[in-house]
């Protein structure tokens, strides 16, 4: 566990009623181990509050930002339907002020890898289980969790304009996560799509 994860978050999760958590987000809870099982990007992560640890599915890598997202998702996500409306980070309440400077989404990671290779971008997204969307030059939607879908958009560069990538979120994301955790999720999505560890 890295330094950016405050152990207090695990204590806060440990204080939650597992039945209430299960009812909100549809995860599992193993009473014998005290671990939650959470489906993230099609894989099950185990979160053990008493041991302040996250067990990653075999063959997967994750970063500290994924741990932050997992902990907040377990504690804060609500049982509400998706809106079906995609919004940018700037459209989230207070997002225009928050998502700039040090909190600018690192979509440049995707551009650095796939700037002139839209087919490579598509292949990578399909490998990650993305669903093709009719937006941008290429776009894929990912069910990070059933409550948190994310769309990754990509425009190929040309001699007049550089390549560009953007993320979109279901409008309900503001009801599940604070802005700093939306940022943490976005960092992990950009790192995963770009192949950065």
Walk me through the structure.
This protein has 197 residues and is of the alpha+beta class. The protein has 2 domains: 70 residues, no CATH class; 109 residues, TATA-Binding Protein (2-Layer Sandwich), CATH 3.30.310. Helix content is 36%, strand content 23%. It contains 8 helices and 9 strands. The chain has a 5-stranded antiparallel β-sheet with strand order 5-9-8-7-6. The protein has a 4-stranded antiparallel β-sheet with strand order 1-2-3-4. Strand 8 and strand 9 form a beta hairpin. The longest helix is centred in the C-terminal third of the chain and has 16 residues. The mean pLDDT is 92.
Layout of helices and strands:
Blueprint: H1 7-14, H2 18-25, E1 28-30, E2 35-40, E3 43-48, E4 53-55, H3 64-76, E5 86-87, H4 95-98, H5 108-114, H6 118-127, E6 131-132, E7 138-145, E8 148-155, E9 164-170, H7 173-176, H8 179-194
Antiparallel strand pairs: 1-2, 2-3, 3-4, 5-9, 6-7, 7-8, 8-9
Helix pairs in contact: 1-3, 3-8, 5-8
Name some characteristics of this structure:
4-stranded antiparallel beta sheet; TATA-Binding Protein; 2 domains; 197 residues; alpha+beta; single chain; 5-stranded antiparallel beta sheet; globular; 8 helices; 36% helix
Could you write a compact summary of the structure shown?
This protein has helices at 7-14, 18-25, 64-76, 95-98, 108-114, 118-127, 173-176, 179-194; strands at 28-30, 35-40, 43-48, 53-55, 86-87, 131-132, 138-145, 148-155, 164-170. With 197 residues, the protein is of the alpha+beta class.
Written as H for each helix and E for each strand, in order along the chain, the element string is HHEEEEHEHHHEEEEHH
Strand content range: 15-25%
Largest sheet descriptor: 5 strands, antiparallel
Oligomer: single chain
What's the number of extended β-strand segments? 9
CATH class of the largest domain: Alpha Beta
CATH architecture of the largest domain: 2-Layer Sandwich
**Which fold name corresponds to the CATH topology of the largest domain?**
TATA-Binding Protein
The shape is globular
Radius of gyration: 17 Å
SSE-based structural type? alpha+beta
Q: Major sheet: order of its strands?
A: 5-9-8-7-6
> How many helices in DSSP terms?
8
Please give the domain count: 2
**End-to-end distance, in Å?**
15 Å
Q: Please, what is the average pLDDT? A: 92
Helical residue percent band: 25-40%
Low-confidence stretches: none
């Amino acid at each position: 566990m890295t330094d950016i994860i405050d152990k207090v978050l695990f204590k806060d999760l440990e204080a939650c009623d597992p039945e209430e958590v299960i009812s909100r987000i549809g995860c599992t809870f193993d009473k014998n181990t005290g671990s939650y099982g959470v489906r993230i990007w099609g894989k099950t992560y185990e979160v053990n509050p008493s041991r302040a640890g996250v067990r990653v599915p075999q063959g997967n890598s994750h970063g500290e930002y994924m741990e932050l997202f997992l902990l907040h998702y377990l504690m804060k996500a609500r049982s509400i339907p998706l809106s079906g409306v995609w919004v940018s980070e700037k459209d989230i309440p207070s997002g225009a002020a928050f998502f700039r400077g040090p909190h600018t989404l690192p979509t440049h990671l995707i551009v650095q890898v796939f700037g002139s290779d839209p087919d490579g971008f598509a292949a990578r997204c399909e490998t990650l289980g993305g669903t093709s969307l009719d937006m941008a030059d290429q776009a894929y939607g990912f069910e990070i969790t059933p409550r948190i879908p994310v769309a990754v958009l990509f425009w190929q560069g040309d001699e007049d304009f550089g390549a560009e990538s953007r993320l979109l979120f279901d409008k309900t994301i503001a009801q599940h996560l604070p802005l700093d955790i939306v940022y943490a999720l976005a960092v992990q999505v950009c790192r995963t799509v770009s192949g950065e560890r």
